[in-house]
Every structure is written in structure tokens, then in C-alpha cells.
Amino acid sequence: MKYFSLNDKNHKVSFENAVVKGLAPGKALYFPEEIPVLSKEFFQSLDKLSKEEIAYKAIKTFVGNEIDENGLRSILSKTLDFDFPVVPISENTGTLELFHGPTLAFKDVGAEFMAGCLGYFVKKGNLGKITVLVATSGDTGGAVANGFLGVEGIDVVILYPKGKVSEIQEKQLTTLGQNITALEVNGNFDDCQDMVKKAFSDEEISVKRPLTSANSINVARWLPQMFYYFFAYKQLAGKDNKLAFSVPSGNFGNICAGMLAKKMGLPIAHFIAANNENNVVTRYLQSREYAPKPSVQTISNAMNVGNPSNFVRILELFENKFDSLSQQLSSFSYSDNETRKAIKEVKQKYDYVMDPHGAVGYLGLQEFLAENPEYYGVFLETAHPVKFLETVEGVIEEKVEIPASISAVMQKEKKSIEISNYDELKEYLMQ
Question: How far apart are CA 143 and CA 112, in angstroms?
Fold first, then answer.
């Protein structure tokens, strides 16, 4: 499998090179040259296959022969070492819980898979030492830090916006030490992401310190997110309704991976991109005008993205045809007050506690189902409610049980380096 640049389709690289480089020249994203269509027999036999076997068959073509079968199966076994349950909420609604991994967030899958792939390539011996440079709006940082912790030959530098992630999220990315460094940026997530992209195109840095990215712009972070949808479909295969998935969307890697799974043959009828007030895609589907804007702070902070990087991949999936995309994607956006109200109502009505991101997904799904009652809808719970303890407990007026893993990390000392601009980032990387 080759991967081409979305800025220049003549620029093509291998899976390994796409993973190691992270970005194509000119800050462009890589995209697979081919999208395999899986057989009907595969989908009919899902109930007989393990998570690891489903994932192996789904990802194998994208990896090709660059990781041998034993190596790939070993990576997948570690990546998928937890559950992905679909929990019924109401007669026509369920939630896919993606927070049962080590950092209680959906990004554990992509981070673990990428760490496994990059570690495999480093062990082959022709890369030297690599620095993973990543920006986070919340959960990415902790997942990447945990996934790469102690991986030989790899340093990790994480940029996060000062005062704009939850306390638990901050502790997860600032307390590990070893090969993990956290840079606390005086700005928002877009500032962090812009610094990362600028560093990748800075030749002075690349000569001294080879960089790769662990955001969902990296194909090894983006692609394995398709697994969630296969696992959910396996649990829902008996439903007669058409399936719709509502995805809380920030940088749009998760929903893009779901759409990729659909292109591969997975029978998902519709997607809903649920936005908070950072609603560039909602506005695009209403106006046909794609107009990024500075991100604004919300209680669903991992979605505070004003210029979602992965949306160009979604456009590529639909050959940049608005009408084709709009037939398969709806998008709605919600305020913090609407999000809080949804958390409270679902707790009172169904005795289920949502985190703010899941609540946005729930709202988007309910708005879609109101006009399309023939669907069975699944919204994604992308993080454990405990990661947003102050918000959730303030709404439901109850205590949320804190998992032992979180209690342990909260006792650790935060260690970060504060920076304000790109020059300070460059100075650190050039040390």
C-alpha cells in the first residue's frame, strides 16, 4: 500500500514512511492510495471472530508487508486489550463506550497502535532516535504519553493549552517522566497545533532532531480508529433498523475512520458529526462554505478545534463532492448549557452518566432521530465522565466513582515547561 499527499498525488510513500514522517511536504496529510472492500462473508462471520482477528483483517491491507504477521498481531493484541461495549440507553439508542483503556479515552487505541508500529520500525535499526511531537486539546496527550512511555528510541514532546484541559487530563500527560515531556502553551489548541505543523516544516529542526506526529493526522493514529465501528456492528448485527453513528467531533479523525470503514463495506447508513460551539463543519454543511475560525473554550474541551485537520480526508473520501458527502453526513452543534442539560436529563431518565463529549454526541443523535425514526442510533462515549469530574458532578449533583488508576495519577507531581510562542518551542527542540 502506498500513501499519497493530499496536496500532491504524485508524492507517494510507503506505510512506514507515512508513519515516520507524520506529515507530507507542505504540512499535507497522507491518504491511502487504495481502499479495500472487505467480503460479505467477512461481515457475516463477525460474530465468530475475536476483536484481534477483526482488526487484523481490517488493517492488514493498509500495513502491507511492512510489519510481518506476528509483529502486527502482537501490536493489535496489546492495542485491543480492553472492551468496547455498546450499552443500550433507550429503545432506539445505544452508546459505544470507548473509555475502557488505560487512560479512559478513545484515543488509547490509536496511540497504542502507533506506538507499536513506530517501535517496530525503530527496532529494525535504520531510523535512529525519533521525537514524537504532538498537540493535544485534552485526551490525546495522556493516551500518547501512556502508549509511548518507555518505548526505546523514541522521545515524546506534548504541547497542551494552559488552563484549557481538565485537571485529570493534565495530570495524565505531565506526571509520567522518563521519555515524556509536556510543554504548557500560553494559548489555545489551535496555537499548539500550528506550532507542531511549523516545526515539521522547519529544516533546522529536522536535521538535528527527526520528528513525527502522533495526532490523528498520522495514519497510524487515524486508521485504527475504524476498529470501533466494526466492534459495534458485531454487537448490533441483529438490529433490523438502519444504523446511524453520532460522533463527538473535534479534529475529525474518529468520524473519518468510521466513514473509511463504511467505504470498506461496513453497513453503516449515516453519520452525524456532533459539534460543540467549534462548529466549522456544521456551518459548512449548511452553507457549503468551509470557513475555519479561532477555537473557543467549552466544557467538551477535546473538541475545541477551529480548523479540523482530518476534514480534508473526509472530503477526499467523497472526491470533494458536497452532494455525496451531505447525503451521508449530518452535523449539529450545541452550547455548553445544552450539553449540561443533556447530561442531567439522561441521568434522570436512564440512570446513565455521560461525559460532556458523549452528551454532545447524544444531542446530535437525538436531533437526527427526531427526523429519521427508522434508524437505530449509536453515540460515542469517548471519555470516562471522571475525566470531567467538576462539570459532571456539578450537573448530576452526585459523586462520580473515581477509578483506582485515576486516584493514583492525581497524587503525582505535575512537571511541565511553559512556553508562549514557536521560537521557544524551537529552542527546546534544538537543545
Answer: 8
- Structural domain boundaries enclosing 280: 83-105+222-401
**Does a structural domain hold residue 285?**
yes
Q: Where are the beta strands (DSSP E) in 33-129?
A: 86-90, 93-97
On whether the CB atoms of residues 179 and 286 are closer than 8 A, the answer is no
Q: pLDDT for 198-224, tens place per residue? A: 998 898 998 888 888 887 889 999 999
Query: Any catalytic annotation for residue 107?
Result: yes
Residue 165: alpha-carbon gap to chain centroid: 16
Please check whether residue 126 is in contact with residue 117, taking contact to mean a CB–CB distance below 8 angstroms: no
CATH number at residue 388: 3.40.50.1100
Catalytic residue among 51, 107, 164, 234: 107
* DSSP secondary structure letters along 232-254: HHHHHTT--SEEEEEEE-SSSHH
**b/e per residue, 138-161, with b = 16+ CB within 10 A?**
bbbbbbbbbbbbebeebbbbbbbb
Determine contact, residues 25/10, Cβ cutoff 8 Å: no
Q: Which residue has the cell 466494526?
A: 230
The model's pLDDT over 115-127, given as tens digits with 9 standing for 90+, comes to 999 999 988 876 7
**What torsion do the CA atoms of 73, 78, 79, 81 make, to the nearest 10 degrees?**
120
